[in-house]
Amino acid sequence: MSGAIRKIVIAGGGTAGWMTAAAIGKVLGANLDITLIESDQIGTVGVGEATIPTLLTYNRLLGIDEAKFMSAVGGTFKLGIAFENWTDVDHRYIHSFGITGKDHWTAGFQQFWRKGRELGVAKEFGDYCLELVAAEKRRFAHLPKLGLNYAYHLDSSAYAQFLRKMAEDNGVVRREGKIGEVRKNEAGDISSLILDDGTVIEGDFFVDCTGFRALLIGEALGVGYEDWTHWLPCDRAIAVQTKSVGPPLPYTRSIAHSAGWRWQIPLQHRTGNGIVFSSQYMDEEEGRAFLLSQIEGEVLAEPRVIPFRTGTRSAHWERNCVAIGLSSGFIEPLESTSIHLIQRSVMRMLQMFPQGSVANADIDEFNKQTFFELEHIRDFIILHYHLTKREDTPFWRYCRGMDIPDTLRHRMQLFRETGRTFRANDELFAENSWTQVMLGQGIMPKSHHPVADVMSEGEVRNFLSHIDENVRRTVETLPSHEDYLKSYCPSS
Ligand code: FAD
C-alpha cells in the first residue's frame, strides 16, 4: 500500500489486542487514529495468567504503577516454575528466574558446581540461586540494588481491562461488534472491516488480534500455518478456576501426568488450574475427570475445553497486517511465553512502524526476527518433553523417542559433552535457563571446563559455601510472600 499510515485498526480485544492498543496509544496515539474492535458475543480465550520477568519492562515502558497494577489484576509474584514428574515420576525441580551461582567469563557456574559435585562438596544446583531458594521458602520482597528477578501471576481479563483504560485515555476508540467481513482493495491489502450491523471501519494498517480465528492474517490474507504438533503433541487444554485454599505460592506449578501436564497458578483470591494433554493419548472426558480429581478448593466456573494447534503462522506481517497473539501462532503455555511474545511483537512493530508506506524490507525483517525468537522458544519447550526418563505411558514413550530439531539436538549434545550453553543472539532464554532445565531434566555433563581445575578442593568448597551462605542469609531476611503481598497491595 502507499501513503502515510494514519488509521490503525486493531481487530480483537483480548490480552493481545489491549496490550497492542495501550502501547500504540501511548507512543503514537497523538498522531494516529486508533480503533479497537472486540466482540462481547465471541469473548476472549480467558486464560494466560502466568508471565515471565520481561512483562516488567513492558509495564515500565507504559508507566504502569506496579502496586496499582497488582491490586487491579489480583496479582501475585512469581519466581519460577516447579516442574513435577517431568524428568521422572516423583522427581521435581524448579526453573527459576534467577541467576545460579557466579559465572567466570570463560565458564558458567555449572562448570565449578560440577567440579564441586565430583569432589562431594556441592549441594543441589538450585541451592545456589536466590530466587529458587526464596521460592521454595515461599518468601518474597523487592530488594534494593540487584533484587530478585520476578514476574507475575495475574487475572488476564482484569489486565486487559486495566490496559483498556490506559488505551482509551490515550485516545484509542473501542467498538463493540462482530466483524463479519474483511474487505480488500485491488492491490490485495486490507481496506476495511465490516461489522455485522453494517458499520464499515476503514483503516490503513491492521493488527490481527482475533485469537485462534486469525480472521485477517489467516482467513482474509490466506497466510498459512506451520504445524509443530509432531514435536509438541499436546493439542487440548481444560481450564477451571477454584477459590484459594491457602497462601499463594510465589511460583507456578507444572505437574506432568500420563498424557501431558497440568498447571496451578495462584492469584490473590483464586487459583487458575488447567490440564494440557494430547487428544491422541487422552480423551476429553478422561482429561476433565482427571483435572477435577486433582484440584483443591471450590470450583468457581464450569471447566472449559480449549483446543489448540501448536505452530506458527508462515508470516507474522503480511501486506498491511501484523498478527499479534494467538492469531500469529501458539506454543503451548509450559514456560508462560505467549504474553511475552505479544509484548515482543508489539515492541517490534513499534520499532518498525511504517515511515510512510509499508516497506517490504520492514516486513522481511519483522518476520525474520519473529521466527528466530519462536524457534528458540519452541526448542526450549521441546526439551522438557524429550529429555525425560519416563517410559510409563505411550505419550512419554513417544516424547522420549521422537525426532527433534537439529538446533536442539546440538544444544543437548554440547551440554552433555562439555556442560556448555550459549545464548544465541537475543534469544529469550539465557544460558542459566538452559542449564537449569537440562540439569533438571537429568543431563549431567561428562566433563567440566579446565578453569575449574585451577581451583584447589578447598577453594572450590569455599567458593560454593560462600554463595550458599549468601543465598540463605538473604532469604532469611525476606518476609513471607503472603505477608509481603498484603502490605504491598492492601486489597489482597
Ligand atoms: P483472545 O483472547 O482469543 O482474543 C481474541 C479477541 O478477538 C477477542 O476480543 C474476540 O472477541 C475478538 N474477536 C475474534 N473474532 C472476532 C470477530 N469476528 N469480530 C470481532 N471480534 C472478534 N500465555 C501466557 O503468557 N501465560 C500463560 O500462562 C498462558 N496460558 C495459556 C493456557 C492455555 C490453555 C492457552 C490456550 C493459552 C495460554 N496462554 C498463556 C496464551 C494466552 O492466553 C494468549 O496469548 C493471550 O490470552 C492472548 O490471546 P489473544 O488476545 O491473542 O486472543
By CATH reckoning, the class of the domain at 7-49 and 155-228 and 310-358 would read Alpha Beta
Question: Low-confidence segments, ≥5 residues, pLDDT <50?
Answer: none
Largest sheet: 7 strands, mixed
Q: What's the architecture of the domain at 7-49 and 155-228 and 310-358, going by CATH?
A: 3-Layer(bba) Sandwich
CATH topology of the domain at 7-49 and 155-228 and 310-358: FAD/NAD(P)-binding domain
GO molecular function: monooxygenase activity; nucleotide binding
Pfam families: Trp_halogenase
Organism: Parvularcula marina
Active site: 78
What do you see in this structure?
Strands 5-4-14-15-16-13-17 form a seven-stranded mixed beta sheet. Strands 7-2-1-11-20-19 form a six-stranded mixed beta sheet. It has a three-stranded antiparallel beta sheet with strand order 8-9-10. Helix 1 packs parallel to helix 6, helix 1 packs parallel to helix 9 and helix 4 packs across helix 14. Helices cover 36% and strands 20% of the residues. It is built from 15 helices and 21 strands. 49% of the residues are buried. Strand 8 and strand 9 form a beta hairpin. The mean pLDDT is 95. It has a domain of 166 residues: FAD/NAD(P)-binding domain (3-Layer(bba) Sandwich), CATH 3.50.50.60. The chain is an alpha+beta fold and 492 residues long. The structure holds flavin-adenine dinucleotide (FAD). The site of flavin-adenine dinucleotide has 39 residues, from helix 1, strand 2, strand 13 and helix 9. It comes from Parvularcula marina. Keywords: FAD, Flavoprotein, Nucleotide-binding. This is Tryptophan 7-halogenase.
